[in-house]
Each structure stands twice: as structure tokens, then as C-alpha cells.
């Protein structure tokens, strides 16, 4: 049960990180070009 919970939390964190990476990386790429 604990393993499933940590796996679920990790998935949520990964999604949040990807969203932030796209949000931060996107504008930078646009600014470079």
C-alpha cells in the first residue's frame, strides 16, 4: 500500500515538474529566437 502511494505521489510530482519545465523552458526558447 505504501509503495503504491509513493508511486502515485512521484507520478504527480513528475507531472508538475514537466509542466513547470515546459512553462519555464518554452518562453526561454521563444526569447532566444
Explain how this protein is built.
The chain has 33 residues and is an all-alpha fold. It has one domain (1-32). 94% of the residues lie in helices and 0% in strands. It is built from one helix and no strands. The chain has one helix spanning 2-32. The mean pLDDT is 83.
Give a brief description.
The chain is mainly alpha-helical and 33 residues long.
The SS-based structural class is mainly alpha
Number of helices: 1
Radius of gyration (CA) equals 14 Å
Mean pLDDT: 83
Largest sheet: none
Number of domains: 1
Strand content: under 5%
Keywords:
1 helix; 94% helix; single chain; 33 residues
Reconstruct the topology from this structure.
Elements: H1 2-32
